[in-house]
TrEMBL record:
Keyword Transcription part of the UniProt annotation: yes
Organism: Mycolicibacterium tokaiense
Family, as annotated: Belongs to the LysR transcriptional regulatory family.
Keywords assigned: DNA-binding, Transcription, Transcription regulation
Chain ranges of the HTH lysR-type domain: 14-71
Matching SUPFAM superfamilies: Periplasmic binding protein-like II, Winged helix' DNA-binding domain
InterPro entries: LysR-type_TF, LysR_HTH_N, LysR_subst-bd, WH-like_DNA-bd_sf, WH_DNA-bd_sf, YidZ_PBP2
Name of the encoding gene: nodD2_2
GO molecular function, one term: DNA binding
PANTHER family linked to this entry: HTH-TYPE TRANSCRIPTIONAL REGULATOR LEUO-RELATED, TRANSCRIPTIONAL REGULATORY PROTEIN
Protein name: Putative LysR family transcriptional regulator
């Protein structure tokens, strides 16, 4: 603080490289790793860290044993640094006259492997044909995504997600699917069809036990009195059938995924023994992109692709 009580910290002391350095340092928790991430020298990042510490009046990184951890203040601002860097990148990637065949824009979409497996190939083919210098980056739907939708979805083009997961103001329905149950063909308990008793008694494989990330169909099952006994948690829908192989476990999958991830004769795909809610896969986005020419074009691509699904 200055003698007259004013704050001596000035934003003019910082610049875009410092913002990127801050984000890299808080992400990597290491000067060496941050330097590698930004392709800068270690002394340069050390100097940036010292400058940032003076600006914030906080250590940001403190040593704990043989590694560094974020201070409470650094934990507080860390999510904001990612939003800020992404927003700046968006600003400077904007094109006054968007032309698909000339654009070098990177479109970013949050999606599980389910959405990628259904939409990814069609989208990539269309971009290669009409916007060959652009690219698509898929990001995983982490718990942090669901916890801060407003801020996070200002930094990405949108998400492939079914209804019931996100609370965004804009959506374009792409296709419908249904939930099915998959068991190993050698399952000793299931012979031809599943019962509600089977759902209660058999072990389960799933992708999440977090209440926030559970599918509406899973929540519906719990409302009907079934509390699944989870024996394994996979990081993707596609890998779930591999985990039930050789066991009496059951998995709930989208029928489109089950068609290629659980091939016969190794697996048996069965109807759920209750009137399961349908699955509507949509593209969701933040209203700030409503009039973005590149985003408008991307949505027109989805409009065309969905007719082929």
């Amino acid at each position: 603080m200055s003698d007259d009580g004013g704050d001596t910290r000035s934003l003019t002391d910082l610049d875009l490289p410092q913002l990127r350095a801050l984000h890299a340092l808080l992400t990597e928790r290491s000067v060496t790793a941050a330097a590698h991430r930004l392709a800068r020298s270690q002394p340069t990042l050390s100097s940036s860290l010292a400058r940032l510490r003076r600006h914030f009046g906080d250590e940001l990184l403190t040593r704990s044993g043989n590694h560094y951890v974020l201070t409470p203040f650094a934990q507080q601002i860390f999510p904001l640094t990612g939003v800020a860097v992404a927003a700046v990148d968006r600003v400077f990637a904007a094109e006054a006259d968007f032309e698909p065949h000339r654009t070098q824009r990177e479109f970013t979409i949050v999606s599980s492997d389910f959405g990628i497996s259904v939409m990814g190939g069609l989208l990539a083919a269309r971009l290669l044909r009409d916007a060959p210098s652009s690219r698509i980056r898929f990001l995983p739907p982490t718990p942090a995504v669901f916890g801060r939708e407003g801020d996070y979805f200002r930094t990405v083009d949108g998400a492939f997600m079914p209804d019931g997961y996100l609370n965004l103001a804009r959506r374009l329905d792409l296709y419908t699917d249904r939930w099915v149950c998959v068991v190993w063909s050698g399952n000793s308990r299931v012979k031809g069809q599943l019962t509600m008793a089977d759902l209660r008694e058999l072990p389960w494989v799933t992708t999440s036990v977090d209440p926030v990330n559970r599918s509406p169909a899973w929540r519906q099952m719990e409302l009907l009195g079934v509390v699944p006994r989870v024996c394994a948690i996979a990081d993707s829908f596609v890998s779930m059938p591999r985990l039930i192989m050789g066991t009496d476990a059951v998995a709930m999958l989208q029928s489109r995924v089950a068609a290629f991830a659980a091939p016969r004769p190794e697996f048996t795909v069965l109807d759920c023994p209750f009137d399961v809610v349908p699955l509507v896969e949509s593209f969701w986005w933040h209203p700030m992109y409503d009039e973005d020419p590149a985003h408008l074009w991307l949505r027109s691509v989805f409009e065309e692709i969905r007719t082929a699904l």
